[in-house]
Design a protein that fits this description.
412 residues, alpha+beta, four-stranded antiparallel β-sheet, 5 helices, 24 strands, 31% strand
């Protein structure tokens, strides 16, 4: 009788053991084991599994890396968070949603335009500030955001004689927003048709912002303003081959502001092949006067943004030169004076951008190969769905086994 009970329970226990083992493999026990070792940054990131859980379904804690890929189950640009313990989680993006901004400590992620702050440690998404602000850069202390608000009218209105009654294109507002309590203030920095890029000084007292002054012209104007009171410290008009380097454009010593410059085709008429063929370099302006400062630094590949600094070296997001998006991949590269480069993080084809929290970027040890996404890190509801067929099969097997033993035991 005892052997019969064991044989009935064995298939069920085996199925439950599989589910339990899978849950533990990507749960708190695995996270604790990984955290107990070292806390390096991954030198390589990978495509997530199609069934990878989202941040809201299974939070993974503060991020070590965030990247964006179309190789997810949504088949369009999707944010992927790699936690400090190596866990992969998805940040689904709405159609047309821009890439968000990761806070300097890696604990929060801002969804642009939506006024939503994502807590990566809990998975909670809360509308903490007014929608309509596109975040440009976090302040160095992680307490406020520099952003831009679009003031253009949604439609053009016409009078009875078909004359246009309004000008839908209006200057944008440069705003400083507290993403935690929702307060915001408009910062006077001169008139811009739109703000493309902005960066904070290391002490958080000054802001540099760039954008066109005329919606019909792509050339940018660069302005340095006081972060508390506003007002123009100095400004400089750039030609069509220079742009502010990115949210990390201000050097850590506060003395320089970086520009990205290129040689090659310029203007909206350039095709993708001509854009990919541009040769890039970093140039610098004196942060106090706006005058050119020092020698330029050549940058290999297709430079897109300066995201931060590491040991005095600029760290850039760089794309490979393939013209097909599916073949192009991104990497984080530290560039030193003279053009010497160190690749920090590499990504597979289809990745369009990589971000890291500033505190980790500055002094992390990059492992030779980062952890791969766990196939067991699925939404919790998926476990019973996957286990159900095994449980049903185990129950059917036990039922057939019981009937067989009954037939053997019957007198007939």
């Amino acid at each position: 009788m005892t052997n019969l009970r064991i044989s009935r329970r064995a298939p069920l226990c085996a199925a439950l053991s599989i589910v339990a083992t899978a849950a533990l493999a990507s749960g708190p026990f695995a996270a604790a084991a990984a955290a107990a070792a070292s806390d390096p940054a991954p030198a390589r990131v990978y495509d997530p599994w199609l069934w990878q859980a989202t941040i809201g379904q299974r939070p993974a804690g503060p991020a070590s890396v965030v990247f964006y890929t179309s190789n997810a189950r949504y088949f369009e640009s999707t944010g992927v968070v790699v936690g400090r313990d190596g866990a992969y989680r998805l940040i689904p993006l709405q159609v047309g949603e821009d890439h968000g901004l990761l806070s300097p400590d890696g604990r929060h992620y801002v969804r642009p335009h939506r006024g939503v702050l994502v807590d990566l440690t809990t998975g909670a998404e809360d509308r903490t500030h007014r929608p309509g602000v596109r975040a440009l850069a976090w302040s160095p202390d992680g307490r406020t955001l520099l952003g831009t608000r679009d003031n253009d009218d949604a439609v053009i209105t016409y009078g009875p004689d078909n004359q246009q009654l309004n000008d839908p294109a209006k200057p944008d507002d440069l705003v400083v927003v507290d993403p935690y309590d929702g307060s915001e203030r408009v910062l006077a920095a001169g008139t811009f048709a739109s703000h493309v890029t902005g960066a904070w000084s290391p002490d958080g007292n000054l802001i540099v912002v760039a954008g066109p002054t005329d919606p019909a012209v792509e050339r940018q104007r660069l302005t340095v303003t006081d972060a508390a009171r506003g007002g123009v410290r100095w400004q400089r008009d750039l030609d069509d081959r220079h742009v502010l380097a990115g949210r990390g454009a201000w050097s850590p010593d506060g003395a320089r502001i970086a520009l990205l410059a290129f040689d090659g085709c310029a203007g909206p008429a350039c095709g993708i092949e001509e854009v990919a063929a541009r040769s890039w370099r970093l140039e610098f302006l004196d942060a106090a006067t706006g005058q050119p400062l020092g020698a330029s630094v050549p940058v290999g590949g297709w430079a897109t943004e300066l995201v931060g600094w590491r040991n005095g070296e600029a760290v850039l997001n760089r794309l490979s030169r393939e013209t097909a998006f599916q073949e192009r991949h991104a990497s984080l590269v530290a560039v030193a004076a003279g053009g010497r480069e160190q690749v920090l993080v590499t990504a597979p084809p289809g990745v369009s951008g990589i971000d890291m929290p500033a505190d980790l970027l500055a002094d992390a040890v990059f492992a030779d190969a980062g952890p791969r996404p766990s196939p067991w890190a699925a939404p919790l509801w998926l476990y019973p769905v996957v286990a159900l067929p095994a449980l049903l099969l185990a129950a059917l097997f036990a039922h057939l086994l019981r009937r067989r033993r009954k037939r053997r035991a019957s007198p007939g």
